[in-house]
Structure formats: C-alpha cells, structure tokens
Amino acid sequence: MALRKLRDASPPQGWSRSFYRAPIVLYRMGLGGLLGRRFILLHHVGRRSGLARQAVLEVVRHDPATNTCIIASGFGERADWFRNLMAQPEARIELGWKRIDIRAERLPLDEAELEMLDYGQRNPRSAKLVAKLIGYEHDGTDEDLRSLAGVLPLIRLQPLDAGSRQPSVTG
Fold this sequence. Notes:
The chain is built from six helices and eight strands; from the N terminus they run βααβββαββααβαβ. By secondary structure, the protein is α+β, with helices and mostly antiparallel strands.
C-alpha cells in the first residue's frame, strides 16, 4: 500500500493552537531542558511584521557532535514558522538547556528521503502518528517514508560559526 491521503490538514487554530504552543511556557520558565533533545524552541522573525516569533518543534534528528538539528514542517509550506524561516534563515534555537544561533536550509528531496527513512526506523510509532496528524495513512514501509519526505519539508538547522555569526532574533 502506498502513502494515502485521508484529509487535508492545516496549521492549528483556536484552542488546538494553544495546545501546540503550551511547551513555550516551559522554555520561558527556563525549563526547556525538561523536553530533552526531542523538541526545540525556535526563535525566528516574522517575514512581514519583522517581530520576534516562537514555535516549539519536534526534532527529526540531532547530531550531538555539531548540534545540527533536522526538523520537519508537519503542515508543509503553509506553516508560518516555515515561511518565516525560509525568508530569514538566521535564527536561534533552544535545544535542551542550550541556546544556539543557527542558519536554516531546506533539504533537497534525496537527503530528506534518507532522513525520513532513518526517523521511521528509529521511531516507527511516531512516524505513523505524524503522518496521521497531517492527514495521511502510513503503513510503515520505506516507500511510505520516502513519500512522506515529499510531503513534509525537512530543514537543517546548522549552528553558526562564531566568526560568521549574524545578528538574529533576541530572546
């Protein structure tokens, strides 16, 4: 069975938006480290407003040697944080107890497929849940995971070198 679309999904609105944003409170209290390396708090700039924005996102993969993170936009290119980050790729993340200035880049499809395959093998239940949340039925096959990579934009968050650091979001 191939990846099957069940319904259209859109970014959360109303009370469900509050649910998704609730972990931000932990970060504001200095307790973001309790979420480990599975989630990050992204500090970014609004593409139109220029105002500071925040979003908590799940980490697809974290490389502890470089502090590079791979994240996915569950609501595709329509997610505000994704559009903001593509317009202004320099940002800051909170990962565990660390704050890291980063530069974001969208992964090409071939790299995104490899990342989704790895994620699905390490987290099969989470991969199925993510697919369901965004309106797809995923049967756990490599083919489905590759197809998910075409639906979910994957982004590499690479720490900025101290010498190439650009002013970014304060926070």
